[in-house]
Amino acid sequence: MTGKSELARSPLAVDFPDIAPIAGVEIATARAGFYKHERDDLVVMRFAPGTACAGVFTRHGVGSAPVDWCQAQLRASKGRNVRALVVNAGCANAFTGRAGAKAAERVAADLAKRIGVGKRDVMLASTGVIGVVLDDRRIADVLPEAVDALRPHAWRHAAGAIATTDTFPKGAVAEAYIDGHAVRIAGIAKGSGMIAPNMATMLAFVATDAAIEPKVLQALLNLHVLATFNSVTVDGDRSTNDTLLLFATGQSGAPLISQASDPRLADFSVKLRAVLMDLAQQLVRDGEGASKFVKITVTGARNDASARKIARTIAESPLVKTAFAGEDANWGRIVMAVGRADEPVKRERIAITFGSLTAARDGAVAPDYSETAMSDYMKNAELEVGVDVGVGRGAATMWTCDLTKQYVAINGDYRS
Q1: Which residue among the candidates 51, 127, 201, 208 is catalytic per the annotation?
Q2: Which of 22, 315, 321, 355 is the residue whose CA sits 20 to 30 A from 110?
Q3: Is 201 a catalytic residue?
């Protein structure tokens, strides 16, 4: 499944859920040959006529051809009647100039012709090595078999086909109710390294059979992405290709939702956030070489934005992350990270906890601090760290993982 076929499954992995078909969605996978070893590396999805689409993309300064394509087409169509998606792994088609843009356009045009839609109605995504122009002939050669293989029950295969250094396929599913009608939400994601807010080396594709206007879908994504995909970090590096697309086929029979303020949308919004959170946290669980899943919560900050900056600084500190790897409750490194976030804090009020254990209180080591208890706690695969900086009411949570020797090994020979 992965780009490196020998990678062992993450010890933090979760099982892929049972995802039943989403009405109006067909999926197929194929091997285009972007990898030397045997594996599928191409996903095609076809959506029912009238499908609405919204997207959130990387804020990376370089970007990529498929990101540029999706953004342009969504602006032109206003997210209406998106009919297909093509995703390849093994080549990011980023920093490839006009040649890369033309290759992306040819992929969209080829699939559009084969399924009888306009090329503007086709979304694209790529992941893999940066700086290599996409060999779109590889995709063109296998598109006929992919189109012939389209079926409604292939979510797990798709999750595997989009993987690079992922060690397990990532999926999530939920059911919600809109005006008494059951609607389903399902999604897949890929990501393991180069994961950081705004966004991460991450692709995620979520579909629902609900009937929701594109502007409402976009509002929902904008609302929920901050606390989900933009609140996870593996290594602090974000990618050129991050793409999160949400499709609504309207095939459930539920009434059309045309306003984000519609109270009938409440349960759907909660369930969508749960799906996005599940997928985002799975990225951290599959962090390259990770052995610890860590939740970091900062409270008492000047505002929520300040809390987020402090939490992210802690979560991305190599010294903090290597301490987690070594099962060392070195809370002094957390103090260091808090201070270098350059946000307002009151040193004499700082408190730090590991789970239910207090390491520091009122700006000093806690009187009841127990090195033995802390060491025992650090042996857990899942850790929670709390930091209160004593300034205000701002709060934020981020999820991260430890930094192990395996991360260096994976990334040291990524292209070899």
Answers
A1: 201
A2: 22
A3: yes
